Amino acid sequence: MTKAMAALSLRLLSFLCCLFLIFISEASDWVCDYSKVGNYTVNSPYHKNLHTLLSSFSSRTEINYGFYNFSYGRDPDKVYAVGLCRGDQKQDECLNCLNHTRGVLAEHCPNQKEAIGWGAECMLRYSNRSIIGIVENEPFQVPFYTLNVTGRVNPFNAVLQSLMRNLTSIAASGDSRRKYATGSAPAPEFQKIYGYTQCTPDLTSEDCTNCLKEAMALILDCCSGRSGGIVLKPNCRIRFDPKIFYGPTVKLLPYAPAPAPPSPSTTNASSSQGKSHTSRTVITIAVPVACFVLVFPLLCIYLSGRKPRKKDEFKREEDSDDEITFIESLQFNFDTLRVATNEFAESNKLGHGGFGVVYRGKLSNGQMIAMKRLSRGSGQGHVEFKNEVVLVTKLQHRNLVRLLGFCFEGQERLLVYEYLPNRSLDNFIFYPTKHAHLDWKTRYKIIGGIAGGLLYLHRDSRQRIIHCDLKLSNVLLDAQMNPKISDFGLAKLFEIELTHASKIAGTLGYMAPEYARHGKLSMKLDVFSFGVILLEIVSGQKNGGFRNGENVEHLLSFAWKNWRKGTADSIIDPVLNNALRGEIVRCIHIGLLCVQEKADDRPTMAEVVLMLDSHSFSLPVPLQPAYFMINGCSSVIQFSEFGSVETGSNEQKIDFADASTNEVSISGLYPR
């Protein structure tokens, strides 16, 4: 009897443990108004925008990778939302989870402008402030199991940390659609650990890694010795468990130039039985179809040659219309912008770019903006304007200037950007009264931020983007001196195999030689420009030429000669007082690697970021850099069909108003 009772008690205990595990896996956590932004009233503009935005998730049928990051409306009633599903969730499962979490938030966070909810398989958050591409460590939740590990804790923790390090590395290497990894590892005492890591794909690899590392630290602090635990954060989450809790990862299609609705040819079969049934159906249909083809060969040739092209053209137009329809929520009224700039007053003029004038403005709610008013004779038509809006809207990164909206009324075309009060970086580096305030810590942060922004454009954005005109005046600084890259918008669309530009626009001294001479396009073009910028930041000197005693030096040749002679200290800006000399000299080394003559010798931006982040990463010896030996300042240069050279005005085209400017340059956009 006692044995029977003991067996029954053991079964009951096992059942309760399993029930507890199930409860944890199915529970939802939520936090309301964590930034204290306040409430909205029912049927207010914010409430309607929130409903419209969250309801639009189900209509975005082209998103089959479980990540939704959109905004809707206009300030102060603009809503930002992020939805993220676990990588094993199919599209319908993902949407069901997000809808359920939406209901949980509506119940527990009624009328709150900001809320976040974590379900077992998804996360949903929304706010009246921008949350897209921004790393936030709070709020967070750390649910854990009461069931302890079997045996010694330290060996178990060692296996857990090793597993999570591997999964972190895999997740962080994902693209802008998914950063997710699952795996398992055997633990002592015949135990097994199952785990997964996931970040919102709008994070950079570095930010994803840091987020997951911090999450793992929370696990070790709170849950050491537990058999399972979860860390839920706004931008990442981890989980480990003694039981497998995830399914096979949903496969993604190869990267396409733009999301497209799924077609029957790309729809995954739900099961092997479904695949088998489809195969039998195809065989059944194939015979009469083959006979039809034999009977009507000319008709088939005509249909295969003519119809697909028309269908593809129609599909491209339809996709383009869908994109511009979605971003119409960002559209400003022209009168609103006219009032914001005081009738485009000269006192609000920040600068003049190749396609128009940039103004400072102030909206009725007090928000400052920078507005680009494109000139009517700029040559930029409706298609080009729409391309810039669609492209820039999709780019969300903390080191890129953010597009707030646009206006397209009659002949007027305007782009509205965030206002950055500290102007562009060249106004600090090249001005004696200001550059002394840039200590090495600030300069190093700026260098890392520029590198991170470029890496996002090259690798982590939805399209591969070549800036083509990166320079200090196109790096803007926010109030905390964080760098933001501008002028990456007006993109030229190329086919994948196209590697040359028929028209070149850029700035002498920053252009890679293969681009300036032959119009050859590659990511290494921006790497060269980054190398020039890095050397300018370290030295405080212009690349176009500076006086060194009685001689006029060119920065690249000056840096190379001193590097070869072992006198790198001569390159360093004297105001830095050789602080952290080893780190500064390492940056000079990286800069020289980036400006090497041959593109193949230059590192990728991913390698540059690794070189900056890890001082243990050994650097190769740089080869001789490319040179642009010119007298005076560098100039804007434009090659027209490579037949003649047109030189524009001096590179420094803006007035030194106390704000930043967003000029226009040509960027290269490559489909993945």
UniProtKB/TrEMBL annotation:
Its main location: membrane. PROSITE patterns: GNK2, PROTEIN_KINASE_ATP, PROTEIN_KINASE_DOM, PROTEIN_KINASE_ST. GO terms for cellular component: plasma membrane. This is Interleukin-1 receptor-associated kinase 4. The keyword Transferase applies. CDD domains: Gnk2-like (cd23509), STKc_IRAK (cd14066). GO terms for biological process: response to oxidative stress. InterPro entries: GNK2 (IPR002902), GNK2_sf (IPR038408), Kinase-like_dom_sf (IPR011009), Prot_kinase_dom (IPR000719), Protein_kinase_ATP_BS (IPR017441), Ser/Thr_kinase_AS (IPR008271). Keywords: ATP-binding, Glycoprotein, Kinase, Membrane, Nucleotide-binding, Phosphoprotein, Receptor, Repeat, Serine/threonine-protein kinase, Signal, Transferase, Transmembrane, Transmembrane helix. It catalyses: L-threonyl-[protein] + ATP = O-phospho-L-threonyl-[protein] + ADP + H(+); L-seryl-[protein] + ATP = O-phospho-L-seryl-[protein] + ADP + H(+). SMART domains: S_TKc. The chain crosses the membrane at residues 282-305. It is a single-pass membrane protein. It comes from Vigna unguiculata (Cowpea). Residues 28-131, 137-245 form the Gnk2-homologous domain. Pfam families: Pkinase, Stress-antifung. It is found in: Membrane. GO terms for molecular function: ATP binding; protein serine/threonine kinase activity. The keyword Transport does not apply. Residues 1-27 form the signal peptide. ATP binds at K372. PANTHER family: CYSTEINE-RICH RECEPTOR-LIKE PROTEIN KINASE 29 (PTHR27002:SF1073), RECEPTOR-LIKE SERINE/THREONINE-PROTEIN KINASE SD1-8 (PTHR27002).
